[in-house]
From TrEMBL:
SUPFAM superfamilies: CNF1/YfiH-like putative cysteine hydrolases. The gene is pgeF. Pfam families: Cu-oxidase_4. The keyword Ribonucleoprotein does not apply. This is Purine nucleoside phosphorylase.
Length: 254
């Protein structure tokens, strides 16, 4: 589980916490300079927050991790399943997963209800950061990312450690049949009272990790929810689309 302190700027997944050769963290909404409704650590540029605030917040977050913002590689995400092999830092377009084996390139994905997944291969020294909304989840973006790591770096999934991060939880992710039909029965629940389905994105993505070959004991799943813990995390759904964004990040130490 993650260690919670009073209003932290970020939380580090426990599964990576003792490792000295990577930096991995998930931001909260705390400790930034943005005002409502983006209060306060809004790290997302695709909002109507003041751009200067977003830049200051990014520097605050990455500096707190001991990372120069110029080291960061991230992409404008499109809820797809395209994977970028990032050989240098920068801003990219159209990718929802990034992988690298280059120390000093800090991968990051933006989140505000969708599921972040961070992967570390300690044998081949490679990392991945994945943004999995419901569309990316049904497109098997986690499985595809691991396959890409195998092809690119020789990664063996059984060697990997993974974190399934903070997102909208099953009890809050109410969907219609047009979305639910894309999910297997073990990842959805019908609610007779609400006449709706509920989707478990955390389990769906964790099961992709298991199916790809990761060991169950090498997978950590966040205890937090963007909706249930909305005082600590941004939630696009709970805040009716007008809110900030968090980042999940992982990188090899130079």
């Amino acid at each position: 589980m993650l260690t919670q302190t009073d209003k932290p700027l970020f939380r580090k997944p426990a599964i990576f916490a003792e490792l000295k050769n990577i930096i991995a963290a998930e931001s909260t909404r705390n400790g930034g300079v943005s005002t409502a409704p983006f209060d306060s650590l809004n790290l997302g540029g695709s909002t109507t927050d003041k751009p200067d605030n977003v830049i200051k917040n990014n520097h605050l977050f990455f500096n707190a991790l001991g990372i120069d913002f110029e080291q960061v590689a991230k992409s404008h995400q499109v809820h797809g399943a395209e994977i970028l092999t990032a050989d240098k830092a920068g801003r990219y377009e159209g990718y929802d997963a990034l992988i690298t084996n280059i120390p000093g390139v800090q991968l990051a994905v933006t989140i505000a209800d969708c599921t972040p997944i961070l992967i570390f291969d300690p044998a081949r020294k490679a990392v991945a950061a994945i943004h999995a909304g419901w569309r990316g989840t049904v497109q098997q973006i986690v499985a595809k990312t691991l396959a890409k790591m195998q092809d690119s770096f020789g990664t063996a999934p059984e060697d990997c450690l993974a974190y399934v991060g903070t997102c909208i939880d099953e009890c809050s992710f109410e969907v219609g049949e047009e979305v639910a039909e894309h999910f297997q029965s073990e990842h959805k629940r019908w609610d007779n009272d609400r006449n709706k389905f509920f989707i478990d994105l955390k389990k769906a993505n964790a099961d992709q990790l298991l199916s790809a070959g990761l060991k169950k004991e090498n997978i950590e799943i966040s205890m937090f929810s963007t909706v249930l813990h909305n005082d600590d995390y941004f939630s696009y759904r709970a805040e009716n689309g007008t809110t900030g964004r968090m980042l999940a990040t992982i990188g090899l130490v130079p």
